[in-house]
Amino acid sequence: MLQPNEQSKLDPRLHFVVATAIIIKDGRFLIAKRAPHEKAYPNKWTVPGGKLVLNEYQAMPKTTNDAWYGIIDWLLRKEIKEETNLEIHRPYYLTDLTFVRPDGYPVVTLSYWARYKNGEIKLCKDLTEHAWVTVEEAKVYDLIEGIWDEIKMVNDILSRKNK
């Protein structure tokens, strides 16, 4: 945890950018439990995703002279593959949120949803368990606050599409 004087040294304009995805397969949603060593929300259940890291995308070819289009789509697919060994279909934007980690770093999270494409679950070291759950089943897990609401939002979107 940063001390108050260290917190003031952080550039307030700098944030971690994170993208997460609620993955749907056969009417169920993938959730996973974060490892105890995680800085933010240890041992809480969540959905797959991860941080945008400069040196990872900086080596990629730019899509314009100065920029990278589609980097969040790339990030989602990369993180989901690394964390769960799954591939997804096209991700759809759901919502965003911001919070400050216990170590003082602010985080902007872009939340998406996507349908499962293929793969068998193989969790990375940062996740300890997983479950495919319905909206109702998700309520019994110790989810990060707001994750159940996001799962419900996706369930509602899918229900409207099926009508």
TrEMBL record:
Superkingdom of the organism of origin: Bacteria
Domain Nudix hydrolase per the UniProt entry, residue ranges: 13-156
PROSITE patterns membership: NUDIX
Entry-linked Gene3D superfamilies: Nucleoside Triphosphate Pyrophosphohydrolase (3.90.79.10)
Transmembrane spans: none
InterPro entries cross-referenced by the UniProt entry: NUDIX_hydrolase-like_dom_sf (IPR015797), NUDIX_hydrolase_dom (IPR000086)
Name of the protein in its database record: Nudix hydrolase domain-containing protein
